[in-house]
Design goal:
By secondary structure, this protein is of the alpha/beta class. It has helices at about 5-10, 35-40, 50-55, 75-85, 140-150, 160-165, 170-190, 220-245, 250-255, 285-295, and strands at about 45-50, 60-65, 70, 85-90, 125-130, 195-200, 245-250. The protein has a single domain, classed as SGNH hydrolase (Rossmann fold), CATH 3.40.50. Helix content is about 35%, strand content about 10%.
């Protein structure tokens, strides 16, 4: 999500096997396992919107051209293949906010990405969108500011104090993200009035109990991390309910797969150039989210 440019420039340009084919309209690959003909017929034109939790930076094979760091094994690509859609446009882009849906995004100096909603047209019949975590710097505060503050008081709650004294105020953030995402969903409806729209939530980072080196928060700040995640999930759920779109509650179904778990779906603090960017989904997490999207569509 945020701080992505620094992370990518620090290590990901060394990634082997990257391509430059993502983001354009393209036929989907043959459906693994042979999806039913009815599944292929139902959705013909699928557009995927979102930030890095949709793009999947460093999950092989990742397209680094243009700076979006989009994987061909992110959940949109998995869903497209399993549905057998005729046309698939994945314009998800790492670092995106809801504002980047309607304005050009500049992932790196000198790079420009068109507004994502430009890809949604009247003939689009399926849209997935995963967005909101970068609004107001919410994700960046959790994995950037809060991990940095740990050294001040490793056993205390320096991040919680920072939120209380400096912000952001979680109640205000929840209202703002809810409003921003609602506006985006309404815009999608106007552009593609006959499309099925699926809002996709964020996978769980913080464990319910305990701590771990992979998530270097102060011991007392794990509770704050959970509050941030719950507030974001609540905002997205409300936006989906208010606009009558389907919601994939990735936070709920990723319980037991947080960063500190034995089977994490999200990477910890250290970027793995062959698997995932720091604090971003592994392929296993993308597979789980793809299953969630297909379930929301009635296609498991």
């Amino acid at each position: 999500m945020s701080r992505l440019g620094a992370w990518l420039l620090a290590g990901t340009l060394l990634l082997a096997g990257c391509t430059s084919a993502g983001g354009d309209a393209q036929p989907s690959d043959p459906t693994p396992g042979g999806a039913s003909a009815s599944a292929a017929a139902r959705y013909q034109t699928y557009v995927a919107l979102g930030d890095s939790y949709s793009a999947g930076p460093l999950i092989p094979v990742t397209d680094l051209a243009g700076g979006c760091a989009r994987s061909d094994h992110n959940y949109p690509s998995l869903v497209a293949r399993r549905l057998g859609v005729r046309t698939f446009r994945d314009v998800s882009c790492s670092g995106a906010t809801t504002a980047d849906l309607t304005r050009a995004q500049h992932p790196f100096q000198g790079s420009t990405v068109p507004p994502q909603l430009r890809s949604v047209t009247a003939d689009t019949d399926l849209v997935t969108i995963g967005i909101g975590g970068n609004d107001l710097g919410l994700f960046g505060t959790l994995v950037g500011t809060c991990t940095r503050l740990r050294s001040q008081d490793p056993q205390g709650s320096p991040c919680a104090r920072h939120f209380a004294q400096v912000g952001p105020d979680l109640a205000e953030v929840t209202r703002t993200i809810d409003g921003n995402v609602e506006a985006a969903l309404q815009d999608i409806r106007r552009r593609a009035p006959h499309a099925t729209v699926v809002l996709v939530g964020y996978l769980r980072l913080v464990p319910r109990h305990g701590t771990c080196p992979g998530l270097p928060l102060a011991a007392g700040d794990y509770a704050q991390g959970r509050r941030v995640s719950v507030s974001l999930n609540r905002a997205l759920r409300q936006a989906a309910r208010h606009t009558h779109v389907r919601f994939v509650d990735a936070y709920r179904f990723s319980r037991g797969h947080d960063i500190c778990s034995a089977g994490p779906w999200v990477n910890g603090a250290v970027t793995d150039r062959q698997r995932a960017l720091a604090y971003h989904p592994f392929a296993s997490g993308m597979g789980a989210v793809a299953d969630g999207v297909l379930s929301a569509l009635g296609r498991r």
